[in-house]
Queue: 4 jobs
Job 1
Amino acid sequence: MADGLNQARAMRVAEIINDYRTLLLHISQQRMEVCQADHNEEGYVVLRESLASAQNLSSANYQPCPVTGQGNVETEKAELQRVIVDSSARRFQAHKIYLRAAAARRWAIARINILRAQRSPADKAAALKTATTTLHQDLNGITDHHVVSDLRAADMRAGHWLDDDPSLEVIRRWIAGR
């Protein structure tokens, strides 16, 4: 039975897709030039992996279900709910990639600043170790639960309609099924 919320669902799709597009843009802005000697440093590896993951995510096309019964409100509702799950899963993945890329970029900037500073070699080594420890802590904090909570909090602050937003388990199943 029609619930009259298809317009809200369509608006939610637009909001999620806009967030997804914005995240992909922000990920692409995390690029950094790196000299060959530093190419295999852990933070730069994470950054490259993040950029590659974002590229793979953005090249994965949406596969709509064939729609039958044009004008059928229930068919439209089911398709909108499916698109909400798909776009939410993509946004979830993009946000996770962005958080990892941003952590790696912070590490890289800290590393550059440490290496440029007028410090003794021992002080530089200690500071580099601290920066790497911070990178590990940041990366370990980027859990699926954290990503979903972060997105939900932002959606709530923005006053978005969230009734059909999928749970973390639904997102995980959707991603695993693709």
Note: The chain has a mean pLDDT of 92.
Job 2
Amino acid sequence: MPETKSNSLSTLALQKFKKNFWGVLSFYFIIFCGLIAIFAYVLAPDNSQNANQMHLSIHSKPPGFNVKMLTIPSQNSYDQSFFSKVFFGEKNTDTEIPIERFTLKKDVLKIYPYSEGEIIGISKEIPLRSFPDDLSSNEIIDTYIKDQKFILGTDKYGRDLLSRMLVGIRISFSIGFVAVLISLFLGISLGAIAGYFGGKVDIAIMWLINVTWSIPTLLLVIAITLALGKGFWQVFIAVGLTMWVEVARVVRGQVLSVKQMQYVTAARALGFTNFRIISKHILPNSLAPVIVISAANFAAAILIESGLSFLGIGAQPPMASWGAMIKDHYSYIILGKAYLAVIPGLGIMSLVMAFMLIGNALRDALDVKEK
């Protein structure tokens, strides 16, 4: 007997999606970025909380910059779990000093801090008792003086740009997920209620949708953010509360079409509750366009958060955010150090493009009319 092929819509959609090169590539890129977001502090050269180790003497250095770094251990120690270090960064109070050279005397480590030729000959003496007593002089040098390379250079505060980029991807991913979840919950709920019950309920919900849609998104987000206050979660909620209208309109239209089907009429005849009919019979057959919209909303949420951070009402310092990094360094574009703003800009562009490409691929895959 000939081998039978599965004709389910989900199987056909998956097969079509796998044939879309850019969609598959974007999917793996997003998975890769997600893993980076989760293990950012494991990968970042600067694993302090928010990658916030500042070295003002080496600010705005180009990619590949090398310097000797002296670490003076702190007398205060924090009892921090492995889980906390991996996911939230290390509570590091050690002092790091970029140096040009050093000499070792009997009880003193004499260092010459990095000065980029501006001031020559100023030295500083560090008593050896600042380091653990059980280490010899050579062991102190080997342990606490290292050649440090800044792969992407440093920002205007002397922080490692690569570490800030790795930690900053968390904001973009978090804002996308939370905003999309909020928009899906509100949009699907209100859209399904409006489409199923119709009448005055439909009129009231559509009025709310039209009023919300008539307000420019960025202005509405700014208003909600100012009402809730500046902060991390406030931005997430504000963005989510402005992205549900498109989901609601699409779900309403789908429900209006699907509720006329015979299986819905049969469910009513069997005495099923309205909630069961909507959740078990109507919504599962109405969500294909919503999946595509969710991918686009994910990209839009990243852009909105970046814009809010650029305006100073998004994620607040010292939290790493790609939008805030552009805000801090956009003036450097005309000062010959454009990479300080271009690198986070490329990060935003690549992530948004990946979600838009995967959205297009999902739209093509879920289009059952195509063969």
Note: Residues 1-6 have pLDDT under 50 and may be disordered.
Job 3
Amino acid sequence: MTIMIIILFIISIVLIGISYFQRDNVKELEQELDHLQLSAMQEIYKLKKKMRIVEEELLQNDTPLKETTTSMANDEAQNPARILAKFRQGMSLEAIALSESSTVEEIKLIVEKNERSLT
């Protein structure tokens, strides 16, 4: 009986020694999971950075459009005054239309609307 206990004790020590040197699959899985999480976070960061750049480019492209429309509105407000000044100087409607890049009909309408200020 004592021999049997000694043999079991030796077997248990050998098994404990073997378990120390055996690979730990759970640790490997945890390391793989950590690596996967880190790479996913890096990809998300890169995507957010790219989205920020694209948004900034879109905002920069929108700004000139707004400025252009505002300047066009200012040009339209100044157009009748310039057109009337040219008409007073004796320029023909066709010449005014060419210089203002508009049609003769538009120039006629502007002159007719502002005819009261001419007389």
Note: Residues 67 and 73 are 10 Å apart (CA to CA).
Job 4
Amino acid sequence: MGAAEITALLGPAAAADALADALRAGLDPEACPQRSAVAVPGGGELLLMPAAQGAYAGVKIAGVAPGNPARGLPRITGSYLLLDGPTLSPVALLDGAALTALRTPAVSALALRHLAPAGRPLRLVLFGTGPQAYGHLEAAAAVRELAEAVVVGRDPGGPGAKALAEHARTLGVPARTGSAADVAGADLVLCCTTARTPLFDGRLVAPGAVVVAVGSHEPDARETDTALVRRSAVYVEARSAALREAGDLLVPEAEGAIGPGCITATLADLVAGRAPGPGPAGCPQLFKSVGMAWEDLAVAVALYAAAGKNSET
């Protein structure tokens, strides 16, 4: 299943539904197998992400090649093999990069459904200009009405930021390029970058604003600063994964600014209603995602089902 077919079969809202359905069916993210990472000579990284749930199993083999954009190639590569659970027979092979480009915004969309205020248009500040930034813009627009999108790129006035702002306008969202200071007026802040150090001053984020950070699964890299984490109600996909991989939390913990108990709730808690969102109105809401194998499996199964229905019509 190629990238074009994946894009045509499922949007971020439907993929978020698949994630919520998996959690409601009893999937426990805390029991999800850890990501395996292998360093590759030349500066890249090979990731293996297996999972099994219900009638299916699957594994994503992904490559992270930081030097690829300079070569005109995608930074993320890979494939996803979906297996029938009882027999472990392969049933589908999916483009791994396209699956990731759908799955990650879908996870964020599911969090936004529970954390972002509803009933009024929201002001969005979006950091990043790559595939995840495009996916997150579309995901946010699918689950909340957006009053404005402000795109902040590495080069604030560069062609990447301008192109994404223009794409937002094609979705009916007023948009412009901006700078990190724009977070002061944001209702939503989406961080979709390869940054290894904080993108903005967390003291500027308004109480009640929602910040989503998805850019890193490395314990020494982060997009948000210690000031924001200390101020925020913190939500994660799974405590075990976050306390193993989320630099946005692990760096402040290493500084002694927070402890492991800083996590308010998980995505499963939100979906099950154990921690109804939005959280406390007097502080920002921070959702930190590292990406997990169960999410790939849930979205891959939904894509496989959608492809089957599509072939019958």
Note: The mean pLDDT is 92.
